[in-house]
Design brief:
The structure is a homodimer. The mean pLDDT of chain A is 88. The radius of gyration of chain A is 32 Å and the shape is rod-shaped. Chain A is an alpha/beta fold. In chain A, α5 (106-117) crosses α9. The first copy, chain A, has two domains: 3-86, Arc Repressor Mutant, subunit A; 92-302, D-Maltodextrin-Binding Protein, domain 2 (3-Layer(aba) Sandwich). In chain A, α5 (106-117) links the parallel β3 and β4. Chain A is 39% helix and 24% strand. Chain A contains nine helices and twelve strands. In chain A, the strands form two sheets. In chain A, strands 3, 4, 5, 6, 7, 8, 9, 10, 11 and 12 form a ten-stranded mixed beta sheet that branches. Chain A has a two-stranded antiparallel sheet with strand order 1-2. Chain A has helices at 3-15, 18-24, 29-43, 59-86, 106-117, 130-138, 202-214, 231-236, 281-296, and strands spanning 48-51, 54-57, 91-97, 121-127, 144-147, 157-172, 182-183, 192-195, 220-224, 241-245, 256-261, 267-275. Chain A binds a DNA duplex through α3. Chains A, B: Residues 1-58 form the HTH lysR-type domain.
Chain lengths: 302, 302
DNA sequence: TTGTCTCCATATATTTTATATATGGCTTAT
DNA sequence: ATAAGCCATATATAAAATATATGGAGACAA
């Protein structure tokens, strides 16, 4: 009982004539006769009545015909689904986002755009830190990530630069520098720096430290926040200042003001991370949409 | 994309290990690897990720797996249905009944009993005259008939005697003979005989005529009724008398009384009619139930 | 009725296809 | 470092479906 047999059965039932059915099936009559007989004997039922001018369905055949059609239909659907998945028109994408990435307008924009373009694709989003994202990626719990380079194992994760986000200084409300149009890092020498821990975001951490160094000072490290957005409440509490990606200015939690940084200012790099060597069409599409969105969306009002 | 491939796919997905899956499938590992690779290339999707310690489903594979399971299930159901049909446990039976047969208690009784025994079988009933039943039988519009022999083409219809039903005389209400315990046919010589036309029921017709002849008289033929039960209103209208199968006494249409016939009395023979040479289990079962019901149900109160 | 035509069944040969066997390479575990 | 597990490849074998050739039974027309 193979797919082939279902097709034979249905075609013969439709033509009522083994010879013509064979022609329709692109084969000769004897093998078709043989296969149908074999099918009937294996099922233990006669599907057709052999008549002088052709064949006609028996009661059993009539009863089973819709069932056979259904199976053929489902098989066709299966194959179509597979092709859809192959072309990235259908499927599911598990997206991992580094801290505060959803606050960056171009990312949600790109995601919305992608779901419009590929309505057959379902998405799931998860926010985490860069090392955890890499691990999830490599253990196939995620399909694509937007992270803050560098990544722990360059060998297995392919990193595609996406954009460089400017950073802002976050000051507690009422801080003396609040009125300055832009602040040079050197003026922060005396303030404890609240920062996202290096092990959770080495790229961002190092960029900030490098900027301090370029400004000729060494920051006094204050408390650490387990998430990038978590630095804001600490600043609001007066525990120090922080350097954060520009997108965080969208967090309208009272008690904190954001300020431009005079050059040299650190940048928060964002990149796409995918498994090395892989690039299914679904992921490829998504990357294209992301890059496009980041190019056209040169947004981020200060 | 064959049934086999679906099974391979599902089994590998379940074991996560091609070698073990092959064992489970009763085959060796290389052909299984080969078939899955062929399947993947024909679908254009990778179903599995080859990993050092086995294989794991890709997103596409995960998405397609339930679909494959469904198809395998439906195929199994198909085969089970076919076997059910083969054994007469499932299916449909188109039953043709000669005129007034449903009035005979043992027939509906048998039908009810059969639907209890074989709940998977659906039944359809149709009442018609014997020649029409035979034709429907031979053109496969019916599967089994209960008719009044003889039948037109003995060659193609197999007739299995079922029972001999006594007949009654139907008199218009108030007829002088109404009070007699039983009536000899000879006393009906003067009464027009309302009868079911010979072309629609030769067996019954001839049996009545033979009884008249045996009684030494010739009936004066009155109006004909297109159905056996149709004779009753004609009798009630005073157009004559009629000889009817005993079961018709159940028709409580006013204006007619039924009376025993003194011997020699005609009998209305009932028989099962099926297509010559065929006897699917479903029909065989039904015949058995019918015969049993007619034996135990030696009913028919006068 | 006879001849012819249509259509299915059977028999044999051929080809295709799947499978088994043997082996190699890669990765993980001990 | 060595062994074990697992998948891939190559070749050979076996099984299967199919094509070709032919026969037979019934239907239809003359």
């Amino acid at each position: 009982m193979d797919i082939r047999h279902f097709r034979y059965f249905v075609t013969i039932a439709e033509t009522g004539n083994i010879t013509k059915a064979a022609e329709k099936l692109g084969m000769e009559q004897p093998p078709l006769s043989q296969q149908i007989r074999r099918l009937e004997s294996s099922l233990g039922v006669s599907l057709f009545r052999r008549q002088p001018r052709g064949v006609s369905l028996t009661e059993a055949g009539l009863a089973l015909l819709p069932h056979a059609r259904l199976i053929l239909d489902l098989r066709r659907q299966f194959i179509e689904d597979a092709h859809g998945l192959a072309q990235g028109k259908k499927g599911h994408l598990r997206i991992g986002l580094a801290g505060a990435v959803p606050l960056l307008p171009s990312i949600p924009f790109a995601i919305r755009q992608f779901s419009n373009i590929a309505p057959g694709v379902t998405l799931s989003l998860e926010e985490s830190n860069t090392p955890a994202l890499c691990e999830a990626l490599l253990s196939y719990r995620m399909d694509i990530t937007i992270l803050r380079p560098p990544v722990p194992d360059q060998a297995n994760v392919r990193v595609i630069p996406l954009l460089d986000e400017p950073t802002l200084i976050a000051l507690p409300k009422g801080h003396p520098f609040t009125n300055l149009p832009e602040i040079h890092l050197s003026r922060l020498a005396a303030e404890p720096l609240i920062i996202f821990p290096r092990e959770l975001g080495p790229g961002f951490f190092d960029a900030i430290l490098a900027a301090y160094r370029d400004a000729g000072i060494t920051p006094s490290l204050g408390q650490q926040a387990p998430q990038i957005a978590g630095t804001i409440p600490l600043v609001a509490a007066g525990l120090g200042v922080s350097i954060v990606p520009q997108s965080l200015h969208q967090l309208h939690t009272g008690g904190v003001t954001f300020h431009k940084i005079a050059r040299p200012a650190p940048h928060a790099a964002l990149a796409i991370g995918i498994r090395m060597g892989e690039q299914p069409p679904l992921i490829h599409h998504f990357i294209t949409v992301l890059q496009q969105a980041c190019k056209t969306h040169m947004e981020l009002p200060a």
